[in-house]
Amino acid sequence: MPNFQGVWDLRTQFQYAGEWPKFAPDRGLFAAGYSDAVAGYKNIIDFINIGTLGNASDFGDLTNAPYQPGGCANTTRGIFAGGELGASFSYARVNVIQYVTMGTEGNASDFGDLIQVNRSPAGSANDTRGLFSTGVTSSAVKLNVIQYITIANTGNATDFGDATEAVRFGSALSSTTRSVRGGGQEGADSNPSNVMDYVTIASTGNATDFGDLSAAKSELAACSSSTVGLFGGGYTNTGQNVIDAITIASTGNTSDFGDLLATRRQNASVSSKFRGVFAGGLSETNVIEYVTIASTGNSQDFGDLTQSRYGLNIGNVAQSHGGIA
Predict the structure, then answer these.
(1) Confidence at 39, pLDDT banded by 50, 70, 90
(2) CA–CA gap between residue 104 and residue 85 (Å, rounded)
(3) What domains sit in the chain, N to C, each tagged with a CATH number?
(4) Are the CB atoms for 242 and 227 separated by under 8 Å?
(5) pLDDT at 2 exceeding the cut of 50
(6) Is the dihedral of CA 252, 257, 259, 260 positive or negative?
(7) 96-101 and 195-200: which strand pairing?
(8) CB atoms within 10 A of CB 49
(9) Is residue 191 over pLDDT 70?
(10) pLDDT of 243-280, one tens digit each?
(11) Would you say 56 and 304 are in contact if contact means Cβ atoms under 8 Å apart?
(12) Radius of gyration of the chain from its Cα atoms, rounded to whole angstroms
């Protein structure tokens, strides 16, 4: 056997093809949203390579132009679900689930339907399953419903169980085994929540209390490595720049990780096993910023989205996030 350290020559690569290092794909997608400055509701999908700093590029278009759809992904497929359409659709909330092939730029295709219309379902996933938790219906009823799909198979969502509270504008993250949801608006729209709860992704059932965020907030973004989860930004009665951290395998309250570059709400997030990336949000921005998940600290500039916007997908639509083995 050769010494695998250093540079491999071509003959060694051929002889030991089974041991040739394989690098995980690290594409992340930011989709949908709203712009006060440019043409309202958006159907655009941007992509970045999480390991490489730089501006986002155009990936393709969604089948509609939703505001605050849910999102999740495995290495192969990115999923977007629900959301709210614009004035020409009388601000209709929808149940549409759509998908893209992560490794190939192009437009989204129909996947199936959520159980009911839903704006702001909080998405999370492992290799096999995608989950969408809580949200709000067309009649402004806040939901505690958790539903799931099998990412490899198109079709409608199935009931998973219930969250510990009925909220809208929360967010979620995952390891390979556990999905953790946090924050949102409960009751009156001015009443944010600090609650986090979790489920075991492979088995259906109701959520269990996990702990508390650093403050009660909604409209936050979430991402994770396989062990550490991050909740960034959000809204109390004002925008927040705080990044909260949890150890996904251990229940408990969040700890302080650092700060975003500015206050953000209705932002989006993707991650690899090593890097968490936050993008967009209010006040309307095209800024993409990142942190190294293993090291606490403030975020740094990554690049720019193709368009400034907020109300992007809620959930980690990336090929190598913490839920991917």
Answers:
(1) confident
(2) 26
(3) 26-309 (2.120.10.80)
(4) no
(5) no
(6) negative
(7) unpaired
(8) 15
(9) yes
(10) 999 999 999 999 999 999 999 999 999 999 999 999 99
(11) yes
(12) 19
